[in-house]
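User: structure tokens for this one?
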Amino acid sequence: MTAAEIVRFCRNARVQGFSAGVTETIAAVEAARAVDSGSEKFALRAALCSSKWEWDDFERLFEWFLRPEHATRQLRKHTDPRGVWMLTGCSAEASALQSDRDVAGAGLHARLKKIDFSNVPPGDQRAFEQLAERLLRRMVLRLARRLHLSSRGRIDLRQTIRASIPRGGEPFDLRFKGRKRQQARIVMLVDISGSMSLYSLFFLRFAHAILQALRRSDVFLFSTSLVNAGPMLRSPKLANALRRLAGSTADWSGGTKIGESMRELNRRYSRLFSRDALFVILSDGWDTGDPRGIASELASIRKRVRRVIWLNPLLGLEDYRPATQAMQLALPHVDVFAPAHSLESLLELEKHLSHV
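Assistant:
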């Protein structure tokens, strides 16, 4: 196979839901060059397959690519619903599965909460979408509505009754509740580069929920450049928000320039960083630019905000170590370094956002 044919194959694989971004395509071309003629299939499989579903489906895709006239019907039958779902926020088979794929029981919920975003089986996609939407909405509503005792505001009936028990039930000591004087600002920076293609859309679902519930929140996307996604993600319907993002200037599945993107964020949106702000980064830490700028830019942001939280999906891997230069330079300026590879790990963010 020529390099052009491999690139075309990777594009077809990406349409079918494979994580075949720019990085994976380059790796596939290099892998094919390193093997003998006739062994390209095995090299491509090793370079492009990052989940069991991709590994199992690769044979069919490769067969179709070599002899499309023999396998067109089979390709359509087995098309992975993630190809449409990842850009619109809804499964391509949602209507067909409406009657027979409802979320079924606590056992399924527990399994889907723990499963890695990159390994969600196509058959569980709709159930996973429903569960993610419900759990993320509940989490951000808890954050938005968190109340505390104060000396003025509405009477907290429950606390008043409890305080009156030692006095025979007479409500001498009225307790009040009121909203916090000022919600913490949340500034999110979401990596949409090629290496994050299997995770970035889940993070956008989370960012959308945050923006719907928290007024003082902002979301930026980056790969090779920075995009202010807040105005687009504030659309009430996630599918509409993602369609607007798909038509924006965001460099989906491109390279990764974290340092340069942070520099632009610092330069153009410095007003967002204050002592009541939480800076949340969702990235795997791979940087195709000069990573040395990350330390200075992140140090500058850290001095002005309350907390820097870095969520890395690779932390879900048992043998992961932050070995990239970018990640090593960033960690001294990070307060919380946590995984974000599953619903369960993403929901853990609540405790970090609550303690401010």
